[in-house]
Amino acid sequence: MKWHGLPYSESTWEKDDYFKQHHADKIEEYEKMKNADTKPSKNIHKIVSHRPKFKKMLVQPYWIPEGLELRDYQVDGLNWLAHSWIKGNSAILADEMGLGKTIQTVCFLNFLFHNANLYGPFLLVVPLSTMRAWEREFKKWAPNMNTIIYIGDQASRSVIQDHEWKMPNGAIKFNAVVTSYEIILKDEEFFGGFPWAVLAVDEAHRLKNDQSALYKVLINFKTYHRLLITGTPLQNSLKELWALLHFICPDQYPSFEDFEAVHGNMQNMNSEALGRIHTELEPYLFRRVKKDVEKSLPGKTEQILRVDMTARQKQYYKWILTKNFKALNRENKGSQGSYHNILMELKKCCNHCELTIPLDAGVQVHPEARLPDLVKGSGKLWLLDKLLERCKREGNRVLIFSQMVRLLDLISEYLELKKYKHQRLDGGIKGEVRAQALDHFNA
User: Fold this and answer.
1) Model-level pTM?
2) Measured between alpha carbons, how far apart are the two ends of the chain, in Å?
3) Confidence class of residue 239 from pLDDT cuts 50, 70 and 90?
4) Separation CA 443–CA 441 (nearest Å)
5) Domain containing residue 221
6) Alpha carbon of 323 to those of 317, 318, 346, 353: distances in Å?
7) CATH assignment at residue 367
8) 256 and 108 in a common domain
9) Residue 79 lies in a domain
10) E strand or H helix at 348, and its extent?
11) Is there a domain that residue 262 lies in?
């Protein structure tokens, strides 16, 4: 028994009479999966070499579970992905964030499952932070697929390999496996030993460097179709563009030197040359932005509010700019600060003066005194304080972004002092806790 919410290493053997009495639905689900004739074929090559003729789906396909509905642009995306597979083209799905790339990908695998009788195995390599979302969408949109979430320590992964991977006769038991970048690098030899009907990589802009460890591992996997999923537009670098194209079509784009010879330098490219690149990308890349396809969304407005620094910020900024480190160290109670990167120190000072001179850890400050002191330490936080009060009155939800983790610490402290309910999401929050925080915020 694999217990919900616990790693595979915590799986236990239980007496079947208890579970048949209390968890009959799970036993039935297991038996149905075990006896299903939708397990991956050993002869994937035969299936993919006889691909069906493309028939455009004008409405959502019959195999979408009841109660769920794809939006029109998601049906278009599914058609494009299906057409690419039938034509033998690996693809890059580059829709803007928020258009449901995860759902479109799961539905594409469902298309292969139902329309092409290709039951896998499908390998999805995704960021740790999104694994919970992928698991949820597979359960929701592809309930007939046996999907494994391959994650955890060595003991957990051994349990998966021993009990979830193969049938006693050696046939692969699952249809899709979802794992993270880190686990792929740890178990590359194990994953590399299987042919994959589809390899899909989420947040695929991480593959724009062909020298990265992830790129070098995945490029050598035996795959029959590759799908890159990214919400980030292609960069203005010919090498990065070539790296993505080389990953999905190594035979068509074997050498960067040849690609550069044809297309030249992107920095000095004229409209005609750019048009040639767009034409070349057309069979491989599909991108829509929200404003073009999701007409039901209200228009997005962006306002840049320019804020002055507080008196203390201005003083610190002046000392950093004039390299008056003596004054800074004196203010920092004699601690010798490291001010090697002046530009970065100026950026930190602009965000909050305590990023330049931290509050003395040993000093106990009363919450009533701490809040105004915190707000006065930053012109941005002073404005944010006014904005949040208004948003709170109007019942709005708010997302606050920052590249600086220490600034998030200060904002979290401010929100605690103001007694505003909030969730913290950053790389330091474990995947499971982060998923719970996202669910809580969305609820």
Assistant:
1) 0.74
2) 30
3) confident
4) 5
5) 36-293
6) 10, 8, 11, 16
7) 3.40.50.300
8) yes
9) yes
10) helix 342-351
11) yes
Contact 326, 319 (CB under 8 A): no
Q: Are 247 and 218 in contact (CB under 8 A)?
A: yes
User: What's the pLDDT score for residue 307?
Assistant: 92
Split at pLDDT 50, 70, 90, the class of 244 is: confident
CB 142 within 8 A of CB 134: no
On whether residue 305 sits in a domain, the answer given is no
- Same structural domain for residues 219 and 95? yes
Residue 269: which pLDDT band, with cuts at 50, 70 and 90?
low
Cα–Cα nearest to 51, from 2, 3, 115: 115
The CA distance from 299 to 316, in Å, is 40
Residue after which a domain boundary falls, among 240, 258, 293: 293
Give pLDDT tens digits for 21-44.
888 888 888 888 888 888 888 888
Q: Do residues 189 and 335 both lie within one domain?
A: no
Q: Of 117, 115, 134, give the one whose Cα is nearest residue 125.
A: 134
Whether the Cβ atoms of residue 178 and residue 198 lie closer than 8 Å to each other: no
Per-residue pLDDT tens digits for 296-325: 767 778 899 999 999 989 998 998 888 887
Our measurement of the distance from residue 356's CA atom to the centroid of its chain's CA atoms, rounded to an integer in Å, reads: 32
Domain-embedded: residue 222: yes
- Domain-terminating residue out of 267, 293, 319: 293
pLDDT tens readout for residues 346-390: 999 999 988 888 877 556 777 788 888 899 889 999 999 999 999
Residue 432 CB coordination number (10 Å) = 14
For residue 171, give the nearest of 35, 31, 46, 30 by alpha carbon: 35
The 3 state secondary structure assigned to 370-396 is HHHHHHHCCHHHHHHHHHHHHHHHHCC
The whole-number pLDDT of residue 236 equals 61
**245 and 376: one domain?**
no
Cβ distance 122 to 134 under 8 Å?
no
In CATH, what number is assigned to the domain containing residue 101? Answer: 3.40.50.10810
Same domain, residue pair 73 and 130: yes
Percent of the chain with pLDDT over 70: 93
In total, how many domains does the chain have?
2
Contact 176, 145 (CB under 8 A): yes
* Pair (124, 163) in one structural domain: yes
Q: Decide: 247 and 219 in contact? Cβ < 8 Å.
A: yes
Same domain, 271 and 357: no
